[in-house]
Amino acid sequence: MSTAPKPRHIGRNISRIRELRDMKQEALAIAIGTTQQSISIIEGSESVDDEKLSRIAEALGVPADVIRNFSEEAVFNIIGNSYDNGSSSINHNNCTFNPLDKLLEAFEENKKLYQQLIQAEKEKVALLEKMLDKI
C-alpha cells in the first residue's frame, strides 16, 4: 500500500473553478483565445503547461497556484474577495497605493505651487516698483 500523495488533476481543478465562477467552457475559450473543444481537452488532462495555466488562471481571475493547489475554501475566499457586482464605483481590491499618501502628496504639491505663485507675484511687484521709480 502506497502512502505517496496522489497527484492533483489540474484539468479537474480548472473545471471546478470555472464552474464556481459560473463560466461556460466557451467563455473561457474565448477569454484565452482557443476553442471550446480545447478547453474540454484541457479539463480532461491531468497536467497543463505553465503558459496555458497562467492564461487560464488570469481568465478565471485566480492565481495559477490556486489552480495547482486547489481547495474549495481557497477558491471561495479569492472569489469572495475579488467579486465585483458593479454596485460600487470603487474597487477596493485593486488599490496598489495608500490613498492617504496620495492625498498628502497632492497637498504638498499644491503647497509648492502656491509658494511658486507667491514668489512670481513678489517678482512682479518688484519689477513694477522698479519701473515706477524710473518714471
Automatic annotation (TrEMBL):
<feature type="coiled-coil region">
    <location>
        <begin position="103"/>
        <end position="131"/>
    </location>
</feature>
<dbReference type="Pfam" id="PF01381">
    <property type="entry name" value="HTH_3"/>
</dbReference>
<protein>
    <submittedName>
        <fullName>XRE family transcriptional regulator</fullName>
    </submittedName>
</protein>
<feature type="domain" description="HTH cro/C1-type">
    <location>
        <begin position="14"/>
        <end position="67"/>
    </location>
</feature>
<keyword id="KW-0175">Coiled coil</keyword>
<dbReference type="InterPro" id="IPR001387">
    <property type="entry name" value="Cro/C1-type_HTH"/>
</dbReference>
<dbReference type="InterPro" id="IPR010982">
    <property type="entry name" value="Lambda_DNA-bd_dom_sf"/>
</dbReference>
